[in-house]
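User: quick one, fold this
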Amino acid sequence: MSFSSSVKDELSRQMPGARHCQIAETAAILSLCGRVKISASDHFWIEIHTENVAVARKYFTLLKKTFNIRTDVSIRSGINPGRSRTYIVAVREHEEALKVLQAVKLINSQGEIGENLSLIRNVVLQNACCRRAFIRGAFLAAGSISAPEKFYHFEIVCPTEPKAEQLKNIIATFDIEAKIVPRKKYYVVYIKEGSQIVDILNVMEAPVSLMELENIRIVKEMRGSVNRQVNCETANINKTVSAAVKQIEDIRFIQSVAGLSGLPESLQEMARIRLERPEATLKELGEALEPPVGKSGVNHRLRKLSLVAEELRQQFPDRNTSSLQ
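Assistant:
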């Protein structure tokens, strides 16, 4: 089972305790994957079409618990090989369909259906608990979440831009910043920040999936931290090695052109120790001197040797390190 399917399975078993929250979740599912049909005799019926059995189960349970009405459940197999089957949950009785549509505000007092009514009229979304339920229903109906081992991506696909804008604003009431991008004829509300996806799972009340995602995030962050540390240490080692190679080249150049005996004793000793211990760090070089000196003292002496080598190169431009190999 994919991580997205696992989250939906967990959410499908999360049943709101209050009726107003049940209505809010029903409204989201109807708004994003529902179909309202009207017969020639002006009779309403409702269908939701989904390829996810968890969504079908949740909608069936919501209708039963919230409205105590009968539903028909059917399965339509995919026409082409490999295509998923579609689950259809339908309310075919006019009075029962009317009861649901009025409760979720998909139909007004004149019996007229508005495409965005459930989102524009926020009667069912006044409470924070109802907004949680609505986001949960929206994700069940039209959402997906990537496998967190690969990358972080949470999205809910909306059929119209007003629905996407309203959903984005509802999510924002929980201090979560979602964005919208057009995709073909749809509008996708998405979140890419890992910590905010954790927050949205918390909002939807999916604690098991939340902990799984958090554990994966911790492991990924630890790996990233270790990699950064290794890269930093590697860079420092490369820098140290390059500096040591340059120091040895300078000392050998001085030795070849003018000899080391003309240098002050402190620089002679420094040059000798560096040649004897090409792999040593500044600290190790300082400890090998008599008397020992700190890293800054070693660095100061090596810079002086470098200046001497540079002056000699200017005086003897025909001499170079290649002739000293």
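User: anything notable?
Assistant: The mean pLDDT is 87.
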